[in-house]
Amino acid sequence: MLNKTRAIAAPMCAAFIASAAFAGGSCTYSKTAQSQCGSSNAGYQVVQAGHHSEPNIIQIASTTEGFGTLTAAITAAGLADALQGEGPFTVFAPTDDAFAKLPAGTVESLLRPENRETLVSILKFHVVPGRVMAKDVVKVTSADTLMGQRVDVNVDGGNVTINGANVIATDVTAGNGVIHVIDTVILPEDKNILSVAAEANMFNTLAAALGAAELTSALEGDGPFTVLAPTDEAFAKLPAGTIENLLKVENRDQLRAILLYHVIEGRVYSDQAINAKKARTLQGSKVKIKSAYGSVKINDAKVIAADIDATNGVIHVIDTVLLPPSH
After folding, report:
1. b vs e for 45-74, b when ≥16 Cβ sit within 10 Å of the residue's Cβ?
2. DSSP of 194-246
């Protein structure tokens, strides 16, 4: 089964834009005073302060007990200067205890120079552009990170989770953004589009077609790509003999055109696609996107799972093979 699907009709935003509240109050960091601002901020040094006098995110993390591992990771990743910049940034900051929950040896491995790229991806997955205060979260279900992939936001009464990590303190404000403290390190998808699809075991025909069309290596590249992925059942709906005919060497160009009609340049999530109403594919022609009565269609194909992240893009699963206009 695919690890991650989203309700395609749910509201999604490139940044948090709603108005409501995380559990707990709004606090501003200070090294010299300690107070409690709602139960969610217990144990963190906070005091009301003017925006212009506030330290930046890195200064807060490096001088606050409980963020030693995060500070070391940011330094090893070469991100300290960036997070001391103007921003603003919203950082979901894992505590030392959160890092300690990772398998033994994971942190030490990530801090090695040869693993810097992986570490950078993980840390950027904890950062959302903009100053996103706790009151701005309840009506959204996801947010874009600096890494490119989205994080899921879930609100259940007074509890808020980010990709399953509990938010345990909120609104630690900095001169260049805000910190929300989480109890678990959140990890982005670390497999590319084809690997994610292969694990689902429902795209075997698509994989065979990509191989026959010599497109496999392209979709293993950096991208990012948005793939409208027909299931094996979708291919089975084609007239008898169609797949076998398309897989023949002499029909490679036709097969490539069909497959490229299922790929859009860039990482396009479902809410963005719905708003755009159409998208140009790598084949050259456009697909039409429409949403009605809780379902989304790409041309005549129904989207049955959406917003499945991969390192190099995103997958939307469809129940029908799309055929470009010339076919």
Report:
1. bbeebeeeebbbbbbbbbebebbebbbbbb
2. HHHHHHHTS-HHHHHHHHHTT-HHHHTSS--EEEEEE-HHHHHTSPTTHHHHH
**pTM score of the predicted model:** 0.80
Tell me the domain boundaries of the chain.
27-182, 193-318
Task: Report the CATH superfamily, name and number, of domain 27-182.
Answer: FAS1 domain (2.30.180.10)
Q: DSSP secondary-structure letter at 46?
A: B
Closest CA to 67 of 187, 145, 179: 179
Whether CATH 2.30.180.10 fits 193-318:
yes
Q: Return phi, psi of residue 138, to 5°.
A: -60, -35
List Cβ neighbours of 149 (8 Å cut-off, separation of 6 or more): 125, 188, 189, 267, 309
Tokens 């708003």, residue? 275
**Position 272, amino acid:** Q
pLDDT per residue over 229-268, tens digit each? 999 999 999 999 999 999 999 999 999 999 999 999 999 9
Residue-wise pLDDT for 42-96, tens only, equals: 344 433 334 446 899 999 999 999 999 999 999 999 999 999 999 899 999 999 9
